[in-house]
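> @MW can you paste both from yesterday?
MW: sure, first one:
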Amino acid sequence: MSHIVGLILNPQTDLFIGYDTYKIGQNLGKHLSERVYKGNFIVLKGDKGDFNTHFLYNGANKYIEPMVGTGVNVILNDYVPGWSADTAKGNGKKSCYSE
């Protein structure tokens, strides 16, 4: 079931289109789980204060979590402040080199 949540600020609005961030996360996790069966995973959750981060993570984790211990090892599972590409890259490199 899809859940669309929206806030209409203008009562003159004729149409509102939303999306299901949890379902998007599920699709990402499913895609990954169908193509990668073993190895070290780096999970970058995004900015902790971003409303969508938790929904994306929880949706994807529905498929990632069952893989842990069956050939998959999560070597990094952390937030990325401001969705910074430089921070994400740096954290990924650190976790790879520490293994």
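MW: second:
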Amino acid sequence: MSAQQPGIYRDAVLRRLDDGTPIYGVLDPAGKWRQWMGAPAIHVRQEAAQAEAAELNEIHGLQP
């Protein structure tokens, strides 16, 4: 997880595949997984999850 600060969007490991590969997601300020079409939105690369979190923080005027 990139940031532990509450009240912001942040990237985190959603789960790991059987071979240990991490699958990333974005936690919202309430600590719930950001959803996409009824399921947690997933990212294969941590950089993509970080970029989404940063964009959401900017859109909502939140300071990491």
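> thanks! The chain has a mean pLDDT of 92.
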